[in-house]
Write a structure and sequence with these properties.
By secondary structure, the chain is an alpha/beta fold. It has one domain: Vaccinia Virus protein VP39 (Rossmann fold). The chain is 41% helix and 23% strand. It contains eight helices and seven strands, in the order H-H-H-E-H-E-H-E-H-E-H-E-H-E-E. A seven-stranded mixed sheet has the order 3-2-1-4-5-7-6, sandwiched between helices. Helix 7 links the parallel strand 4 and strand 5.
Length: 208
Amino acid sequence: MTNSIAKTPILGRIKTRLVRFLGAWGVFFKGFIKHPVMVGSIMPSSDITVKKMLAPVDWENCNLFVEYGPGVGTFCRPVLERMKPDAALVVIDLNADFIDYLSKTIRDSRFFPVHGSAADVQQIIADLGHEKADYILSGLPFSTLPDQLGPKIAAETYDVLRPGGAFLVYQFVKRARDFMAPHFAHIDSGYSLWNILPCHLYWGWKAK
C-alpha cells in the first residue's frame, strides 16, 4: 500500500510532462503543416542548439530581447530564465496558433507574444514602448520566405538594433548569411550537429 502511494506522485509528474511535451509537439507539427515555408522545420531546436545560440548574449546589458518565429517556445523559456527581472522578451509570429499557445502556457510579466510580421519589428516594439532591441533571434527560413521578405526583415532588424547589439540566426542552410552580410560587417559563425536537422549558427554584430 505504501509503495503504491509513493509511486502515485511520480507517475503523475511523468504524465504531466508527457502531456505537455505531446501538446507542444502537436502545436508545432500543426504549424509546420499549415505554413511550412514560415516554420522551416518539423522539430523544435535541441537544448544543445539553444545553449550554443544564446552563449554570446550579455544578459546584464540586455533590456529587450526579440525573437522571430518562436514556435512553441523552445527558446522563450531559456531566454526568460537568463533575463534580468526588468528586461522584456517580445516574440513575433504570423502563426496565430503559436501565439495563442504561448499566451496560454507562458505566464511571465516580461513576456509579450505578438501576432504579426517580423518585417514590422520597429513598429511592434515602438507600440510596446521600446526604441531599440539589444538582441534579435531568428529561426525563420530566410531562403524560402516569399516576396523579398527575407531582405526586408534583415534590413529592419539592423535598423532596430542598438549599436553593439546582435542578430542571432540559426538555419539549416548557409544562405541565411547572405541576407545578413549586406548589413552586418562582423558575423560570427558556428554549427550545431546535435539538432534535427544539424544547423548553421550566425551572430551578426552591429558596430558600436
